[in-house]
Specification:
Elements lengths: L1 E3 L4 H7 L3 E3 L4 E8 L2 E15 L2 E15 L5 E13 L6 E11 L2 E10 L5 E10 L3 E13 L2 E5 L4 E5 L2 E11 L2 E10 L2 E7 L1
Antiparallel strand pairs: 1-3, 2-4, 3-4, 4-5, 5-6, 6-7, 7-8, 8-9, 9-10, 10-11, 10-12, 11-13, 12-13, 13-14, 14-15
Length: about 200
């Protein structure tokens, strides 16, 4: 199948008024069903806006497969954007995110550079879904800010359960400098959070 967007913005506005998708956007893919169901989508757009967050020159790929005898779905996705203007930071570039989803587990990695500087962030990690919620573990993650290189300690974990977020050994290190968050936060307020 193939889809070329002429002017779908009335539809996007109906779905969420903060979404804008460029008129020249394009998507194509494959859908097959046999002993396995397989779907693949490749899409590109000159620009995509979500509120004040703007993404330019976007390419993405999503692949899913499922055996007909099982409810388990395998999925992978990749998205990149050459330039961005995000609401909370100055202009950025070369955003890349990829993820692999297998049952109750997602492996992910991504990166982002700040335009006209050496500042950058590169993350990798995993997300595990549980009956109570999910947890995040970052591995091989680092950032460079103002010529200082920071990395996350390997045993870090953030757990999301019901209305509670718990930080465990979530620590950034740069040489002898550390920034650590340990403790719990709920929608009723902070519960025993230690920031050091």
């Amino acid at each position: 199948y193939e889809l070329r967007v002429q002017n779908m913005n009335p539809f996007w506005q109906f779905m969420d008024p903060l979404i804008y998708v460029a008129e020249s956007s394009f998507a194509s893919g494959v859908f097959r069903v046999g002993s396995n169901a397989f779907m693949s989508i490749e899409a590109s757009s000159d620009s995509l806006f979500y509120g004040q967050n703007k993404f330019y020159d976007i390419r993405s790929t999503i692949n899913t497969s499922k055996t007909t005898s099982s409810g388990d779905v395998l999925a992978s996705g990749y998205i990149e954007s050459r330039k961005q203007k995000l609401n909370i930071i100055s202009a950025t570039e070369y955003l890349k995110v990829e993820a692999y989803w297998d049952k109750d587990h997602i492996d992910f990695r991504g990166g982002l550079n700040q335009s006209d500087s050496k500042n950058n962030v590169h993350v990798a990690g995993e997300m595990n879904f549980t009956k109570e919620g999910f947890d995040l573990h970052f591995k091989e993650s680092k950032l460079e800010v103002l010529d200082e290189k920071w990395s996350l300690k390997p045993k870090n974990r953030i757990e999301f359960k019901n209305n509670l977020i718990e930080f465990r050994d979530f620590s950034l290190a740069s040489g002898k400098q550390y920034l650590t968050v340990d403790g719990k936060y709920s929608d009723t307020g902070i519960q025993d959070i230690l920031l050091s």
